Amino acid sequence: MALRSLVTPGTLTRGAKSVGLGLRGLHTFTLPDLPYDYGALEPAISGEIMQLHHKKHHQTYITNYNKALEQLDEAITEGDASTVVKLQSAIKFNGGGHVNHSIFWKNLAPANEGGGEPPKGSLGWAIDNHFGSLEALIQKMNAEGAALQGSGWVWLGLDKDFKKLVVKTTANQDPLVTKGPSLVPLLGIDVWEHAYYLQYKNVRPDYMKNIWKVMNWKYASEVYDKENP
């Protein structure tokens, strides 16, 4: 599955770089800047984790995606169908890693810049309507994130077809859209160990509890209002 089928329009505009590939509409990518300093989310998430997560892990997904995309272009040019098929898993995994992390950084904000402040307006009302309360939603996402075996993500999404909020988990680096083409991610929590192990060791529930202190509900609300006018 190619990356273009995993993202919604505008998801990856920032950081895209056009290259001389024969593939129409596909680009290589560069690492996007964070909208805050690495240490700005402390004590919820340490600066050391943020730096490694952003500069090492996210960069690796981008590097491997770009490499796979160039190999795909060459394989298509040469008519090498077996290599085209073989490369799909690398494109999905690494492209998904870039998609997910690009959303994740925007889902977070320092406490002195609104991080942790509860959602207001239409999203706040929708959360109360679908889950009963913000506390109930947080409890549900924490439980599903803690129970997820191996690595993956837990998401709050908007189902545009049914105009309702949903909580979903995805394995590895699968974006939310792999759970359904009408699903739009509002916020996602990375539950790979690299997102928390240096600080929280193997106690994922503590990480899940504290990340809400720096959750950027303003960004989630903006996406919700745009996708659900």
TrEMBL record:
According to UniProt, the name of this protein is Superoxide dismutase
What species is given as this protein's source?
Answer: Xanthoceras sorbifolium
State whether it acts alone or in a complex, and with which partners, per the record: Homotetramer.
Described by its record, this protein's role is as follows: Destroys radicals which are normally produced within the cells and which are toxic to biological systems. Destroys superoxide anion radicals which are normally produced within the cells and which are toxic to biological systems.
Instruction: Family membership, please give it.
Output: Belongs to the iron/manganese superoxide dismutase family.
Reaction it catalyzes: 2 superoxide + 2 H(+) = H2O2 + O2
Gene Ontology CC annotations of this record: mitochondrial matrix
Under the heading PROSITE patterns, the entry gives: SOD_MN (PS00088)
Q: Give start and end of each Manganese/iron superoxide dismutase C-terminal domain.
A: 119-222
Whether Flavoprotein counts among this entry's keywords is no
Query: Where is this protein found?
Result: Mitochondrion matrix
Q: Which Gene3D superfamilies match?
A: Fe,Mn superoxide dismutase (SOD) domain, Iron/manganese superoxide dismutase, C-terminal domain
